Amino acid sequence: MKTFDLTQNTVRELNQALHDQSGECMEREFDVFSPHGQHNIACGLDQNLSVNIMGHAGYFCAGMNKKATVTVHGNAGQGVAENMMSGMVRIKGDASQAAGATAHGGLLVIEGNAGARCGISMKGVDIVVKGNVGHMSCFMGQAGNLVVCGDAGEALGDSLYEVHIYVKGHVKSLGADCIEKEMRPEHIEELGNLLSRAGIDEDPARFKRYGSARQLYNFKVDNASAY
Amino acid sequence: MSNELNEHTGLRESATFDRTTMAEIRRAAETGIYDIRGFGAKRKLPHFDDLLFLGASMSRYPLEGYREKCNTSVTLGDRFAKKPIKLDIPITIAGMSFGALSANAKEALGRGASEVGTSTTTGDGGMTAEERGQSKKLIYQYLPSRYGMNPDDLRKADAIEVVLGQGAKPGGGGMLLGQKISDRVAQMRTLPKGIDQRSACRHPDWTGPDDLAIKIQELREITDWQVPIYIKVGATRTYYDVKLAVKAGADVVVIDGMQGGTAATQEVFIEHVGIPTLAAIPQAVQALQEMGMHRKVQLIVSGGIRNGADVAKCMALGADAVAIGTAALIALGCNHPRYDEEFRKIGSAAGFYDDYQEGRDPAGISTQDPELSKRLDPVEAGHRLANYLRVLTLEAQTLARACGKNDLRNLEPEDLVALTVESAAMARVPLAGTCWIPGQSF
Question: Mind telling me which InterPro entries this protein's record contains (chain A) (predicted)?
Answer without folding.
Answer: Glu_synth_asu_C, Glu_synth_asu_C_sf, Glu_synth_lsu_3
